[in-house]
Design a protein that fits this description.
The chain is an alpha/beta fold. It has a single domain (about 40-325, about 345-365), classed as 3-Layer(aba) Sandwich (Rossmann fold), CATH 3.40.50.720. About 40% of the residues lie in helices and about 10% in strands. It has eleven helices and seven strands. Strands 3-2-1-4-5-6-7 form a seven-stranded parallel sheet, with helices on both faces. Strand 2 (about 70-75), helix 3 (about 75-90) and strand 3 form a beta-alpha-beta unit. The radius of gyration is 20 Å and the shape is globular. InterPro entries: NAD(P)-bd_dom_sf, SDR_fam. Keywords: Oxidoreductase, Signal. Belongs to the short-chain dehydrogenases/reductases (SDR) family.
């Protein structure tokens, strides 16, 4: 396909070169996990999409810190390869594989049911799984990109909330994208009632919904000891853009040598998951340099977040009865438990083994189809 005449102007080449140089300079800055002393012995973490790319890098780092690390992967074969690689690299035998397809609400419920039955605690939940796919409606009546990137994580979080709260201080990290700024949080996208203009629009919009979800979740979890933050990995060299428009793919092909590696792109997620600096911070958006940044105006729209939440509950089959007592709304925020522990660092030696039994039993009913 021939490029438009404007794109053949020498100025475009110079601008692309300058952009690449800026990206290369920025990727050399940022938080260094080697300077973080957090040890996760006795802690349990879940990383979705952990079989490759950013997710595998995040899981590797958490396993290296001695966490019981659950790799939640759609492909058992690729997940098994990642499992063996991470175990070999870290010597951590407490790395386990569980099948999860966040694009299937039935799979999400099955996964959550198994976690609630088998795990006594959950300290970190990382929503990393993400795709950019052509428009397709799943057998459950959901658009697949939005199901995988947004509705699946929404449902999974709600089903595991009791376990997270019983393990507090706990953290939820949602991997978003700087591209959320060009997205539209139209709930009609979720079920395909309205069709996004291309895979790139769908991806950007799903990431905007992820930021809205993370912020609204933090508001609803006030006083529970569980934090929720969204992060941008930056411009990372992965294959996620293979279904984007040819113009976007052409631009990224030009600047690919200057993009971040998956390991570099994982830093902001790891920072929010384990760093002492991020302890107690909630409802925020961190850029790829692990710096607090204001997300788009749409991502800060409280009314939009609440409307999206309500529609997401309806589409995923959740209802107020699935929320634990005290899981408040804006008008009725959740009261702070008398014995609540501060939202401190994961380095704290506080354990809640055995405290999850009652909540887990109640939640098992919610995850059954």
């Amino acid at each position: 396909m021939e490029l438009p005449s404007a794109c053949r102007h020498p100025g475009w080449f110079l601008l692309t070169l300058l952009l690449g140089l800026l990206l290369w300079v920025r990727r050399r800055r940022g938080w260094d996990p080697r300077q973080c002393p957090t040890d996760l012995s006795g802690r349990t973490v879940i990383v979705t999409g952990a079989n490759s790319g950013i997710g595998k890098c995040v899981a590797l780092e958490l396993a290296r810190r001695n966490a019981r690390t659950i790799l939640a992967c759609r492909s058992r074969e690729r997940g098994r390869a990642a499992l063996e690689e991470i175990r070999a690299a870290t010597g951590n035998a407490a790395v386990v594989l569980r099948e999860l397809d966040t694009g299937s609400m039935a799979s999400v419920r099955s996964f959550a049911r198994d976690v609630l039955r088998e795990e006594r605690r959950l300290d970190v939940l990382v929503h990393n799984a993400g795709v950019s796919l052509p428009f397709t409606i799943t057998p459950e009546g959901l658009e697949q990109t939005f199901a995988i990137n947004y509705l699946g994580p929404f449902l999974l979080t709600n089903l595991l909330l009791e376990l997270l709260k019983a393990s507090a201080p706990a953290r939820i990290v949602t991997v978003a994208s700087f591209r959320h700024r060009s997205g539209t949080a139209d709930s009609r996208f979720l079920s395909g009632q309205r069709r996004p203009r291309g895979a790139d629009t769908a991806y950007s919009s799903s990431k905007l919904m992820g930021v809205l979800f993370s912020t609204e979740l933090a508001r609803r979890l006030r006083g529970t000891g569980v934090t929720s933050n969204a992060v941008s990995p930056g411009m990372v060299s992965t294959n996620i853009m293979r279904h984007f428009s040819w113009a976007v793919r052409a631009l990224f092909a030009l600047i690919r040598p200057f993009l971040k590696s998956a390991a570099q792109g994982a830093l902001s997620t790891i920072y929010c998951a384990v760093s002492e600096e991020a302890a107690g911070i909630t409802g925020k958006y961190f850029n790829s340099d692990c710096v607090l940044e204001l997300p788009s105006a749409a991502a800060r729209d409280v009314s939009l977040a609440q409307e999206l939440w309500d529609e997401s509950e309806r589409l995923t089959g959740l209802s107020p009865s699935h929320h634990s007592p005290g899981f408040g709304t804006a008008a009725h925020p959740a009261p702070s438990p008398k014995n609540e522990q501060p939202q401190g660092s994961l380095c704290q030696n506080s354990h809640h083994d055995g405290a999850t039994v009652g909540g887990t039993t109640a939640l098992l009913k919610a995850v059954l189809p």
